[in-house]
Give the backbone structure.
Amino acid sequence: MDVKKDSLHAWVLAARPKTLTGAAVPVMIGLSLAWVDAPRGSFSWLAAVLCMLFAFIMQIDANLVNDYVDFVKGTDDRATRLGPERACAQGWVSIGRMKWAIVITTALACLVGLPLVCYGGLPMVLVGALCVVFCFLYTTHLSYMGLGDLLVLVFFGLVPVCCTYYVQLHAVTPQVLTASVACGLVIDALLLVNNFRDRDTDRTAGKMTLVVRIGARATLLLYLGVGIVACLMGLVFGCYGHWFAFLLPLLYLVLHVFTFLRMKRIWQGRELNSCLGETARNIFVYGLLVSIGLLAL
């Protein structure tokens, strides 16, 4: 790919816009739950926008940190890399400017997130700080220890869904808690297929992801399982009278199963990148269907 160094195109590629679905879906679900439960006229659209912006900026920040650290550590080898090309490894963005971009996006995320204190109180400061800290710890240490999937469950499930709901209603219900875990499981499928593709190069680099630890066959079953369990957890919506929020995501499960079968057939190599794209699409479909199901009353 012909990309001019440090150009706008280079920075767009470095930000990885396709990954923003993983940031948007938890906030979508949290906002839909809050809209349904909030007393008439109490829903804050400004808080909703701030939550979405914070999620987007933190996702971009995490992508830039991942790009920089993996290049410095030598994990992103142009000769052996199977995934989409990375900005630092390809020379699209200089190391010095990537450092500054990380500083700027981190500061911008804090600036956008700070007003949420007016809606959720001082706990929002702690939540924001943890998001920033673990954004760096994930790439620098925790992903190499096989803890990436746990962090996805926490920071793409529990934290964004529950906190988005909390800033609107200052509480977290069992329905919201269950929905947040289900959301985290669905989004973890993206990390699973990514690490499934990279299992051999990760093992060589000493990156002991969950896939490397449990093996390829067990990972395939886990990939299938996270989608099934997430949909079954949707039964909690039925218990609160939101049956559409349980039934509509079953359409997502059909797509998820087809992607699982495709992963099983391809098994290894760069062709698995198509499964990565399908999984990102499936995640967005899940979030959309859950949100529609909650609002269709």
